[in-house]
Each structure stands twice: as C-alpha cells, then as structure tokens.
Write a sequence for this structure.
C-alpha cells in the first residue's frame, strides 16, 4: 500500500492516516518537487474494503510526555506517572462520543436541564502486565468503570502470545470495553485479547495503545475491522526481535522495574 513513497517520515504519517484519517496532517506531500498522491489510492481502497479508524491522539502535551518516556534514562517512577497522565489525556478522546442524557437539576440560582453521561456502561481491560499502567488514568476519568484483566505474554523466541489469565466483569458483553496495552508491536497480543472478548459476546470494543508499529495496526485492522484503535504515536517499524523502533523498550519492564 505504501509503494511509490519511500519517505520514512511520510510513511509513518501515511500509515497513521490509513483508516479514517483521524490525525492532524492532511493533504499530499512532495518528493524532490514531485507531488506524491499515493494516499489517494488508499482512500479508494478503503472505500472498497472499509475498516476501523486509527485515531492518532497527538496533542502537544501527549507528545512531550511520550518523549520523556522514550528516553532510556527515565526511571520507573517517572515512566509510570507519565503513562498515567497520558492515559487520562487519551481518555478524553476515547470517551468523546459517549452518549449524554438530559437531567433536571437545581443550581443555587435556578433549575436547569443539564447533561449526564447516559446509562451505557464502560469496562477497562488491561492486557497484563503493561496494560495495567494505563488503567489508573482512565479510572480517574471514569471512576465507575469496571476492570477486567487478560494475562498474555509474548514467547521470547516465537513472539507469539501465550494466555495465562482471564478475569472479566460478568456483564462485560453489555459494556463498552476499552482494551489497554502501551505497546502494539506485531499485534498478536491485542488480536488474541480482542478475540477472547468477542468469544464472551463483546461487540463494542476500543483498543488504546501508547506506541504502535504499522505492522501491528495492519494486523488488528485485518483481524478486527470493527475495533477502533487509539494511539499516541505510530513508529517506524519492528526490529528482528519484534520490538518497536524507535519505541520505548520493554514497557512492562520499565513500568515494574524488572530489568
Ligand atoms: C508486551 C506489550 C504487549 C505485547 C506487544 O508485553 O505489553 O502486550 O508485548 O507485542 P505484540 O503486539 O507483538 O503482541 P509482554 O509480552 O512483553 O508481556 P509483559 O507486559 O508481561 O512484559
Ligand atoms: N513489547 C514491548 O514492551 N515493547 C516493544 O517494543 C514490543 C513489544
């Protein structure tokens, strides 16, 4: 899909624009004075094969905090706090379209019709371990959200996920589910977690990640075209160990100080 455009930076932006174009940059760009319009072909393809939207939440404060997280000298305490702060900020966007009901209230001055988030219930499901680091921020925003847990780790050799735990709210299938995991690398862990939720009847799921590789986004979109993806950044690629480049290293180890 990216043929004809060798510019790495543009590929990053381009990848982030693919499905739904929910990011800041618009329009085509130039290579050596020649207009590059290859993204228009993708728009046409997407009209034929509709898929989920990738929302790149690239607010300046999120970018700033993420830069500190990426630095190798940033310690676990700061890393955790920044992840919590970014999760809260991203939460604003993820919950932007929650339906509202009108309610009658009385202010000290008079009666009025005011807004209240309607009865639709929310669940946060972190993928263990690293996804836990995004729960606090979201719960600050939505304190009544229930929390389920899915335990998955990547086999170091095959890079494929192994399930070791699953505990979800009983009524999870009636809730809007936000799956959290800071890293979307090959997409294997997220895809398996989404499949587990769907097996339990969930049909309203969003995936919230901090940093994603284009490969992971493509895989989630292919296997779960109904799940919108929210990320703070789309990086360049995966390395031979399936780590995101430039990325931020092993998110779980950095959160919990295990290395
Ligand atoms: C990391 C990360 C994701 C997964 C991403 O977890 O938190 O869950 O890898 O990789 P993928 O997209 O290629 O599946 P890891 O397996 O290292 O487990 P941990 O959180 O317990 O450290
Ligand atoms: N898991 C991580 O924690 N980081 C990566 O870059 C890839 C997978």
């Amino acid at each position: 899909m990216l043929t004809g455009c060798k510019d790495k930076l543009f590929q990053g932006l381009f990848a982030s624009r693919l499905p739904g174009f929910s990011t800041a940059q618009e329009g085509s760009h130039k290579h050596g004075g020649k207009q590059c319009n290859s993204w228009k072909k993708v728009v046409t393809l997407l009209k034929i094969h509709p898929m989920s939207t990738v929302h790149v939440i690239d607010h300046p404060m999120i970018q700033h905090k993420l830069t500190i997280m990426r630095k190798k000298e940033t310690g676990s305490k700061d890393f955790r706090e920044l992840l919590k702060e970014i999760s809260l900020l991203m939460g604003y966007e993820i919950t932007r379209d929650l339906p509202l009901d009108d309610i009658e209230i009385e202010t000290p001055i008079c009666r009025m019709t005011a807004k209240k988030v309607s009865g639709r219930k929310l669940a946060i499901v972190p993928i263990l371990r690293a996804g836990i680091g995004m729960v606090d921020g979201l719960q600050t925003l939505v304190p009544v959200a229930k929390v389920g847990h899915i335990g998955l780790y990547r086999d170091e050799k095959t890079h494929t996920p192994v399930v070791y735990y699953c505990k979800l709210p009983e009524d999870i299938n009636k809730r809007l589910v936000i799956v959290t995991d800071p890293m979307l690398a090959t997409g294997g862990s997220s895809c398996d977690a989404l499949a587990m939720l769907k097996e339990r009847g969930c049909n309203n799921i969003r995936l919230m990640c901090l940093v994603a590789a284009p490969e992971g986004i493509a895989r989630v979109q292919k296997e779960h075209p109904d799940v919108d993806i929210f990320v703070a950044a789309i990086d360049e690629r995966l390395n031979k160990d399936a780590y995101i480049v430039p990325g931020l290293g092993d998110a779980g180890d950095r959160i919990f100080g295990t290395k």
